[in-house]
Specification:
Blueprint: H1 14-28, H2 34-39, E1 45-52, E2 56-57, H3 61-64, E3 76-79, E4 86-87, E5 92-99, H4 100-131, E6 137-139, H5 149-158, E7 172-174, H6 176-182, H7 185-195, E8 201-205, H8 208-216, E9 221-225, H9 229-242, E10 247-251, H10 259-263, E11 269-271, H11 274-277, E12 284-288
Length: 290
Amino acid sequence: MAFLPYRQIENLDPEFVQQKLAYFISEDVPDTDKTSEIFFSTTKKSKAFLENEEEIVFAGKQILEQIPSLCPEPIMLKIHCNDGEKIPSNTKIFEITGQTKFLLKIERTIINLLQRLCGIATTTRKYVEIANKYNVRILDTRKTTPGLRIFEKYAVRCGGGWNHRLNLSEGILIKDNHIFASGSLSKAIEMARAIYPLEFVEVEVENYSQLLEALLLNVDGILLDNFSSQDVREAVAFARSKKPDIFIEASGGITLNNLEEYAKTGVDAISIGALTHSAKSVKMHLEFFE
């Protein structure tokens, strides 16, 4: 398997998580929770648990761990699931004891976020279980929700997938618009090498002519975009004959239904935008029990 040049989200920075959660909660409670103010005093405490309503792959432990930092009073939090763990339906994901008004304040935000991230992790695992049989990595893309990219890419990792570029500052990937703007594929590669001579350069190609051109200029990685599985197989064989250690990924029109056909082609990775832009949120609920 060829070298994967992109940084991976293994751990979330606690301060970053705290800042994000505080902002998300402020969207829902910019001033005060008027309904809770009617019914509960600041001394009222409750116990609650979060439960999933379907089988999922869990993503969110590193986020849940920061909940106590958001509460002005001590709370008790027990997290029962680990990131990447496949858990059956009706599992108590965490239990929490604390100020009732605080629990109601964060309830919807935490559920919304975990439903989204667990949905991504669960979807990713379905792709990974197929691709792993052929030693192929499943990569995410930059097709993420603005403001949630780090969390969504973290969820992909929880699902067993791998992170492609986290942002435009991390690595060079020359695509069709760059080629058009620079005048030709060769010119685009030459310009990239002139400014970033030591940087990993990957090129998206749409046909065999572009593939040959990129190989002649000794790029580090190839992205085969919208190739049929048979064309990918032939392109991989040709590219490896010229440069055995080149990184090759495929993308475009690859779904769970045809993934295995592409995984058999010899590529190192397959990038799937649907991991983040089309993952269905899972069902969860927070239940007060005391």
